[in-house]
Design brief:
This protein is mainly alpha-helical. It has three domains: about 90 residues, Fumarase C, Chain B, domain 1 (Orthogonal Bundle), CATH 1.10.275.10; about 230 residues, Fumarase C, Chain A, domain 2; about 100 residues, Fumarase/aspartase (C-terminal domain) (Ribonucleotide Reductase Protein R1, domain 1, Orthogonal Bundle). The chain has 20 helices and six strands. The strands form three sheets. The protein has a two-stranded antiparallel sheet. Helix 3 packs across helix 7. The longest helix has about 35 residues. The protein is elongated, with a radius of gyration of 30 Å. Bound molecules: arginine. The site of arginine has 10 residues, from helix 7. Arginine binds next to helix 7.
């Protein structure tokens, strides 16, 4: 197949080089963006009198026909035939409409064309990812609203620490995801400039209208420097950084779900539809979905590392290294979408086991801080109260007791300040209810946090019907 750039060459491209160079197998997913960009470019060329209106009409009809044929599965993008999606669309157009097709690439380069296509594609995908994150936040909100009073142990160092509620725990993740949405929004905001018209690197001598194409294609403005316009891939890096942080959050939650559904915890039961079995051990019900999310986090970090590495030290302006942006960015996007699509229903359908959470909370002296606070509120300096409580905990461990099952005499043996009301003070529900400081686990305080999340979702068009 003769190349579009064949004029300067005396020989055919080596087959190995052809395969190595070609990107059509993966950049064909930007077919719609490529056509959209070409439609805007052609319309601009016509408006500016750079090509004739009849040509614009033919190009427009031709491109729309190609779009329809691609969508109907009638076009196969093989690397033998096409180098990349930009060449493919132009070749197809010229095959169909002849000379008018050959005029489309006036005042344009593949360098600004690919820069445009990638931006349009990434913008679209950010919108889709954002919608999936918001939906998962909604799922978390609903689960939290069902578990405002579900007491569980809160952990530090994976050691039982202080009592919290399941709602409190889940809302921590909702807050992480809220920041993820903000990062996606920021990325979108920063990249909303149109590179079309940057040309190969140095703009063009034709009287193009970059404001028009920028506006037509939904960008805030044209990019301000043509060299930067064709060689900026910051937005891919920013997106992959944002997605890496998002995956880090999903991996943390996955890890917790894996622990929670083990027999050691049994805080939750995953729905059968979201678990898998073992080929040899009949009793097994495995959290493979969570493990895969945890594992796939590596792909997204990998994409970020790939982008940062190949962009490092590239001189201005366009270099073919930049073609590597596609697979890395696509891989990150696909992975994140797949993970979000599965984690949301998995979380929505899991069964919470409040009794088991409560029983775990009863062991491990998670009310020890409250016992010390009890003394402190009666005037004992905190450090002394801390020490007295430590002595009590040690005594309990020695005698197989808990703070709740100690007699008042045993309390008084350590400090005379203890009275009958200590049992109320160290009761788990008191411990949770009294933690009313901003951000704490008291049900009314978690409810306040939830209002913030609900408002955040509402501002972004997600309504939650509260039964
Ligand atoms: N397939 C190329 C890419 O993805 C398109 C731009 C090619 N430009 C060039 N001067 N070879 O980067």
């Amino acid at each position: 197949m003769a190349k579009m750039w064949a004029g300067r060459f005396q020989k055919e491209t080596d087959a190995v080089v052809n395969d190595f160079n070609s990107s059509v197998m993966f950049d064909c997913r930007m077919y719609a963006e490529d056509i959209r960009g070409s439609l805007a470019h052609a319309a601009m060329l016509g408006r500016q009198g750079i090509i004739a209106q009849e040509d614009v009409q033919q190009i427009t009809d031709g491109l729309n026909g190609i779009l329809a044929d691609i969508e109907a599965g009638k076009i196969a993008f093989s690397p033998e035939k096409y180098e990349d999606i930009h060449m493919a669309n132009e070749q197809l157009l010229t095959e169909r409409i002849g000379d008018a097709g050959k005029r489309l690439h006036t005042a344009r380069s593949r360098n600004d064309q690919v820069a445009l296509d990638m931006r349009l594609y990434v913008k679209k995908e950010i919108g889709e990812i954002r919608a999936l994150v918001l939906d998962f936040m909604r799922v978390l909100y609903v689960k939290a609203s069902e578990n405002l009073e579900t007491v569980m142990p809160g952990y530090t160092h994976l050691q039982r620490a202080q009592p919290i509620t399941f709602a409190h725990h889940i809302m921590a993740y909702a807050n992480m995801l809220k920041r993820d949405v903000r990062r996606l929004d920021d990325c979108l905001d920063g990249m909303n400039e149109c590179p079309l018209g940057s040309g190969a690197l140095a703009g063009t001598t034709y009287p193009i209208d970059r404001e028009f194409t920028a506006q037509t294609l939904g960008f805030d403005r044209p990019t301000d420097n043509s060299l930067d316009g064709v060689s900026d891939r910051d937005y891919c890096i920013e997106l992959c950084a944002a997605l890496s942080i998002l995956m880090m959050h999903l991996s943390r939650l996955s890890e917790e779900v894996i622990a929670w559904c083990s027999w050691e915890f049994k805080f939750i039961e995953l729905d059968d539809a979201y678990s898998t079995g073992s080929s040899i051990m009949p009793q097994k019900k495995n959290p493979d979905v969570c493990e895969l999310i945890r594992g796939k986090t590596g792909r997204v970090y990998g994409a970020l590392t790939t982008l940062l590495t190949f962009m490092k030290a590239i001189p201005l302006a366009y270099n073919k290294d930049m073609q590597e942006d596609k697979e890395a960015t696509f891989e990150a996007i696909d992975t994140v979408k797949n993970c979000l699509r599965v984690i949301a229903p998995m979380f929505a359908t899991m069964t919470v086991l409040p009794e088991n959470m409560k029983n775990a909370a009863k062991r491990g002296f998670i009310n020890a801080t409250d016992c010390a606070d009890y003394l402190t509120k009666k005037g004992v300096p905190f450090r002394d109260a801390y020490k007295a409580t430590g002595t009590l905990v040690h005594y309990c461990i020695e005698h197989g007791k808990t703070l709740d099952t100690l007699s008042l005499d045993e309390y008084k043996a350590v400090s005379e300040v203890f009275e009958d009301d200590v049992y109320h003070a160290i009761d788990l529900s008191t411990c949770v209810r009294e933690r009313r400081s901003i951000g704490g686990p008291a049900p009314e305080e978690v409810a306040r946090q939830m209002v913030n999340i609900r408002d955040f979702l509402k501002d972004r068009g997600i309504e939650i019907d509260e039964a």
